[in-house]
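Hi W.,

Here's what went into the run:
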Amino acid sequence: MDTLTLDSQSSAKSSKTNVLERNALENEAIYILREVVAQFEKPVLLFSGGKDSITLVRLAQKAFYPSKIPFPLMHIDTGHNFPETIAFRDKLVAELGVELIVRNVQDSIDQGKVVEETGKYSSRNMLQTTTLLDAIEEFKFDACIGGARRDEEKARAKERIFSVRDDFGQWDEKNQRPELFDMLNGQIEMGQNVRVFPISNWTELDVWSYIQKENIEIPSIYFAHKRSIFERDGLIWSAEDDVVFRSEDEKVEERTVRFRTVGDMSCTAAVLSHADTIDKVVAEIRESKISERGARIDDKRSEAAMEKRKQQGYF
Amino acid sequence: MQRSSPCGMAKQIGNSMEVLKIATAGSVDDGKSTLIGRLLYDTKSLTDDKLEAIERTSKQKGYDYLDFSLATDGLVAEREQGITIDVAHIYFSTLKKSYIIADTPGHVEYTRNMVTGASTSQVAIILIDARKGVIEQTNRHFFINNLLRIKDVIVAINKMDLVDFSEERYNRIKSDFEVLMGKRDYQDQKITFIPVSALKGDNVVNESKNMPWYKGETLLQHLETLDRKDIYNVGTPRFPVQLVIRPKKEEFHDFRGFAGKVYGGELSVGDEVVVLPSMTRSKIKEIYFYDKKYQTATRRSSITITLEDEVNVSRGDMLVKVGDLPTIDKQLTATVSWMDSQNLTAGSKYVLQHGVNKVLAKVDAIDHRILPDYSGIDTGVTSLGMNDIATVSFKLNKPIYYDAFKKHRTNGSFILIDTRTNATAGVGFIN
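Here's what came out:
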């Protein structure tokens, strides 16, 4: 999208003349969200309780003000969420007055549609796909808005802003629609749906800076706190819940840590940190040398891990 | 009339610096991915885990240097074939600017990706292999960036290490390229030549010790010093309406806001505007961004406008300033870049999406096609295949309100959607 101007000169000027400043990434995201509502009949915002989807919610508030957010939020609950995330989710939804749909991976397991992984690296992250696709079909959603960013991972770097999925939720990376200038083509056939990524062009630092500037509330686990943890393969895992498999010889200790992403607890590692305020977190990210998904074990399974999951309909 | 308390200001977001998007074009093996990898490496943008992955894979493959192309080649098919097959976006930043690189492939069959990448970029880098010099593809890369009116183009003459960092070789390539420049349509394009070795790191971020004869900027120095005026043209304001916002709340009982993005220039409260296509006149009453009101919105702001009068406005309509009307017509001629495997033929019908407005379009005639080697034009063609570029005239079922592409990039372009497959089949630049 041809929207990438941050007007660094205008900040001084605007306080005198009341000129709206430009934040290219924010303007682009608002434009995309409005296109979703204009072009689709039944959009939904996929809400994980993580910082990216919380940022999307703020952008949606801005896009449609003074109207309420004109689509529901949907959480695909792995059952392995950090309790702080769930509490945060419920509070936010109550404040916004929007509908929240929750669909549980546990139900897909109980219905025998998916089989729980076992062993040291078991995770419900992959299983989410089935629950998501079922929910899309159940509610006949034609557009699912998500907080994925192109800087997260190599295969994500190639995905479009409007990404068409077939009946099976599959992504055909070789047959993507070109996206020219600002124009978004949301025409689809019955049964197809579109995944929409309004913050495609944001980096992790952009998201954190936005949360800081906008003073957006986020779950407490993003900030440094004391937690019982154990180490494995150089990564730090929460030992406070039964979700993460831990063998007898993996020693538990208490450390001050925070999480950089809040995915499924079973595949989200913590980082040692004393950043207990948003300002400190932003400063830390600026300095950081480990990329964000480096703390997500699901991508390390293989070089092509993400691409394979996307072809199968993963978000 | 409007609240103007300082706390009502939207604050600067992101890294409070500019974002620059760069399109890259090069042929297979020109070392484009290596150049990008080098930029990331020398700006310390590669994180430890990514660097580790590159080192590990390079070693596995038995290379005696770091294969930076592994930093950008995202898809499995690409890694298998060792080539880039789709547009990838790469992000890095310096203290001055944030950069997004659209890594667009250079093979003959992928012109469409290059057009796509260039459509959202403000700067372009064209790569030339110093051993091969200006080749047919160079011609295409230059033509496309010129067609899309990219204001600042860098010609990076790469692999200088393989021609002994020869100044003579560099000058020869430069003068060959200047022959192409003579033929260009868009003469205001600024072109900068830089001799580089992406593999060895000469003149990418750091100045080359091997080419003391080159006194110009390194690639990054050039990007860092680009100013807004170097990359943007100022045009007239156009406001295509995306949505009508009717809150249905007590507090905003009669609120009717028109949501959209301002293109080309500024809009201010009090501006007299015309609503197209109804030609109704009114005045801008309020400009909202979220819950704050503003006096003026600059270009590319996503705002909501209310008008003084009750006017019928719907999605696809456009607000423009009085006395500043675009062309309102049911026919148009455009340079079309075709992107679909199904050919465009005279008489066929498409959905023409012009900004957020959609109409039906029928191909009236294919006037002439640019020859694939860009040596001239071909008249008498009846269909266009993937990657063809041609002048095409259309008849529309309803008038649209457009400007020539050379006057207004946004309001002068459209896409064509295949009515059967819904694919984005082509893009047009209005003459």
